[in-house]
Amino acid sequence: MLFFIAAPIIKLVTASSPSVIVDTVKEKEVYNSITLTFEASLVATLISLVLGIPLAYLLARVEFPGKSLIEGIIDLPVIIPHSAAGIALLTVFGHRFFLGKLFGYMGIRFVGEFSGIVIAMMFVSLSYLVNETKEGFRSIDVRLEKVARTLGASPSQSFWRIALPLNFHHIISGTLMMWARGISEFGAVVILAYHPMTAPILIYERFTSFGLKYSIPVAAVMVSISLIIFIVLRFLNKGFKYE
Amino acid sequence: MIRIKDLCKRLGNFRIKDINLEIFENEYFVILGPTGTGKTVLLELIAGLQKPDKGDIWFDGNRVTNLPPERRNIGMVYQDYMLFPHLNVRENILFGLKVRGRDKIARNESLAKIARLFGIEKLLERKVKALSGGEQQRVAIARALITSPGILLLDEPLSALDPGTKEKFLGDLKMIHSELGTTTLHVTHDFNDAFTLADRIAVISDGELVQIGSPEEIFQQPDSNFVAEFVGVRNILQGEIIEDGEDSIVRVGDSIKIAVVTTKKGKVNLAIRPEDIIISYEPFVSSARNSFQGKVVRIRDRLSLVEVIVDIGIKLTLYITRRSLEEMKLKLGERVYLTFKASAVHVY
Q: How many helices (H) and strands (E) in chain A?
């Protein structure tokens, strides 16, 4: 199983010589698309953090009618084909549609724009952040927050001083998963914004236009950078775990 | 002072039913009951962590029923301490003062005072993970008391401690209570804790308070079978008063006649504490009006005492010390006499 996962990745990363890799990174188109990918996913993740953490907390702590429906909706993007998700987003955020028009008045357009990449990434990866964060909040003994309240903390103080720091580890994990999922997204992004070109789309384009030989170095660069970042961040995140 | 009137709460299949209770200023009040009878829910209702379906709560004459916990001026300690794992001992204890926005000088003064009282000065920089059970408990109570709460709520605070630590901590709780005088409401399933600490006890069963009284009253005059069995009265008998007046006699079974002191008539329950029964090889003349011959059917070693069961037509349980057992050379099947006073029989 491990071999099945590791072999293609190792093969890909080692297929090109280091000099080819360096040359690839120096290529303006490649460099731009990689930074664009990381940036768009980062913005999608940051927006989701602001909205997703309160939602996760609500789902973990409060019982209310329709809660399982909301949980089901949050899981939905994981199961639908991502190209379909892209089309679905287009029907809402396209120029001629309701939300698209509304944002259009504010000068924000989605189709073929950075913001289009962001919402596509957000749509397909939000579940990872919300679910991981929700499970994290659930694993915290609610009596810790109750004690905080009896000691004089308001609900918001008990959230900021107890629940949030105790859940830091899960929030970071969820953030990393969401960011990673956003970076790797192809299907939904390609429908909303073929240009500006994110790295997965660039890899696809090089593959279809120039063949395997030209797509491999770009893919190798993308995979290597992702691997390095995730290894470092996961290692750092270990320090935030409280048992 | 806490006053609770007609307090009700339904949680799934479980219910707190019509709790009426008054707890006096500076009192150490214990709510005693088996696990799963609603003690923690009652405590959380008083703390404001749960909303009652019905009823009211007053602290010092002020209605607090709808106040959130942070405005009730209480301190609470849960059974398994609930220390904040991401904060060290000092930060845990200071939490209540920090969220109240006290300045640093006042905070440090209070910290020094409470740390001295609890003997935890040396633990302040430790992580809570590095503390023993007893130390965690001290920190949890110090954290609850540093804000000078009007009421201290304790949820089974001793049940997670080993016997030695527990013994010491019982003494500490008593000392702290007499030092600070904080009105304390302590829930437990352990009669010994209740007996050692309480000014008064309320026994809870199935979400209802079944008896309220001093420890002695609860122990010596349980007013229901539930209380009697729960507080460890072993000899519970049913009988009928056959002679009343000054010398009441209760017939138990066909032939056993027990002298009691009561004004009751008809069918009654009797409870006799095992400590009140004297065992001997020969009958002896005394003021005790009950003396029966019987056979030893069981001898069982308990921690500090020996439990002996004697069949006198009915089985009675009594406790003797290990030394008495050795001196009497008591063996199974031996014929003995049991003697107890009429006034030692609680009739209800």
A: 14, 0
The answer to whether residue A146 neighbours chain B at the CB level (below 8 Å) is yes
**Considering the domain A21-81+113-240 in this protein, what is its CATH number?**
1.10.3720.10
Inter-residue contact A174 to A233 (CB < 8 Å): no
Q: Tally the residues of chain A.
A: 243
Domains of chain B: 2-229 (3.40.50.300), 233-347 (2.40.50.100)
Establish if A164 touches chain B: CB-CB under 8 angstroms: no
Residues on chain B touching A157 (C-beta within 8 angstroms)? 99
Q: Could you give the CA distance from residue A163 to residue A186 in angstroms, rounded to a whole number? A: 35
Q: Å from A164 to nearest chain B CA?
A: 11
Angle, CA of A225, A231 and A235, to the nearest 5°? 150
Q: What ipTM is given for this predicted complex?
A: 0.83
A139 contacts chain B (CB < 8 A): no
Q: Provide the residue-wise pLDDT of chain A in tens; the chain has 243 residues.
A: 889 988 988 888 888 888 888 888 888 999 999 999 999 999 999 999 999 999 999 999 999 999 999 999 999 998 899 999 999 998 989 888 888 888 888 888 888 889 999 999 999 999 999 999 999 999 999 999 999 999 999 999 999 999 999 999 999 999 999 999 999 999 999 999 888 999 999 999 999 999 888 889 889 988 988 888 888 888 877 766 665
Distance from CA of B260 to the nearest CA of A (A): 50
Task: For residue B146, give how far its alpha carbon lies from the nearest alpha carbon of chain A (Å).
Answer: 9
DSSP letter for B240, please: E
